[in-house]
Write a structure and sequence with these properties.
The chain has 352 residues and is of the alpha/beta class. It has helices spanning 17-26, 38-51, 63-73, 88-91, 96-101, 117-120, 152-164, 176-183, 225-231, 239-250, 254-273, 296-303, 328-351, and strands at residues 56-60, 79-84, 104-108, 134-141, 168-173, 198-201, 212-216, 280-281, 289-293, 309-312, 317-321.
């Protein structure tokens, strides 16, 4: 099981060989720590070329820190943060954003993981009223937790509305690469050009080993961030190992190749499972995730060979994720196992 590729998460995949090779190259000799090394400065310049020269770049260990510290930098404890009910910060970060920002998360239910102006308006009231937390940030996820993608038009609509109402927009970009590939656009077009103020920029889900970056597209928002990063225990001493991954990923668009492959594998899997009568795909397959309702009695048996997560136990809905290293053979074997289990279940039910 240790070496078998499953469909639980793109976090479960290995590290891209080019990144491992880069680690070997920068591992000789000594260099200055805490980000003052030549490799980190190179990575920052490459990021700026991809997102705009006004970008302020800070590296941190993981996605929870990226989201939490990014929000900490642009809020006060009396503020509130509007997000989707399914957002990672609302579901999977153990209350870290609320604990460290002091802010109240105001979540909104969605059918597809995407916020809209109509939904956001529900929380935009009581400005200046001291008895209520003051709305300050709208946080969107690209790609969403349901595998769907905000178009540039949808993002601009949200950012324009936010800015007109004195709010900022944060983007959780843990799977930003997959979204950019899905839309066939550049990273800058769906972030800074679209009006995003702060981006939590992920890489581990697309072939990185560890670490994320926080990008501020307005330098004023980053004025005191270095202190928040240190207080948040996210200032890495041997920074070159963290930062160099981004340089590799953004050179020769390795990020695009990896994400394109992951997205393609999801489409291959989708084309196979959508033909199976007992399976209902519940979301558009726009990136590298498939959400499907499958018979409850086969889930555990299927998981024993190809691990994946149950998304909604009440509905018997599961999530299958593909990665940069998923192969068509992985998918073929997985689907064969799935079909065999369904057949056995059908035969047993007839016998009974």
């Amino acid at each position: 099981m240790l070496n078998k590729r499953g469909f639980a998460s793109d976090n479960n995949s290995g590290v891209h060989p080019k990144i491992l090779k880069r680690f070997e190259e920068i591992n000789n000799g000594h260099t200055i720590g805490y980000g003052d090394d030549i490799y980190t400065q190179e990575a920052i310049e490459i990021i700026k070329k991809n997102f705009g020269q006004q970008t302020e770049v800070f590296f941190v260990y993981n996605g929870t820190a990226a989201n939490t510290l990014a929000l900490k930098a642009i809020t006060h404890s009396y503020n509130s943060i509007i997000c989707a009910e399914t957002s990672h910060m609302n579901v999977d970060e153990c209350g870290a954003p609320e604990k460290f920002t002091g802010c109240k998360l105001l979540s909104l239910s969605t059918d597809n993981g995407k916020l809209t102006i109509e939904k956001i308006k529900y929380h935009l009231h009581d400005f200046g009223f001291e008895h209520h937390a003051q709305p300050k940030v709208i946080s969107i996820t690209q790609t969403t937790e349901l595998g769907t993608v905000y178009t540039i038009k949808e993002i601009k609509k949200i950012t324009s509305y936010a800015h007109k109402n004195g709010l900022l927009v944060h983007m959780d970009g843990a799977r930003l690469y997959n979204a950019a590939v899905s839309l066939n656009v550049s990273l800058q077009e769906i972030t800074s050009d679209a009006g995003i103020d702060v981006l939590s920029f992920g890489s581990t889900k697309n072939g990185g080993m560890f670490g994320e970056a926080i990008l501020f597209f307005d330098k004023k928002l980053a004025e005191n961030f270095k202190y928040y990063r240190k207080q948040g225990m996210q200032l890495h001493s041997k920074m070159r190992y963290l930062s160099s991954q981004f340089a590799v990923m953004l050179t020769d668009e390795l990020w695009r190749k990896n994400a394109a492959h992951a997205n393609k594998m999801a489409k291959v899997l989708y084309e196979k499972v959508k033909k199976i009568p007992e399976i209902t795909v519940t979301q558009k397959v726009e990136t590298n995730g498939i959400f499907a309702i499958i018979p409850e009695d086969i889930i555990e048996k299927l998981q024993s060979e190809y691990f994946f997560y149950i998304w909604d136990e009440a509905k018997s809905e599961v999530r299958w994720m593909t990665s940069f290293d998923t192969t068509e053979n992985d998918i073929a074997n997985f689907v064969d196992k799935l079909i065999n289990l369904l057949r056995k279940t059908l035969i047993n039910s007839k016998v009974i």
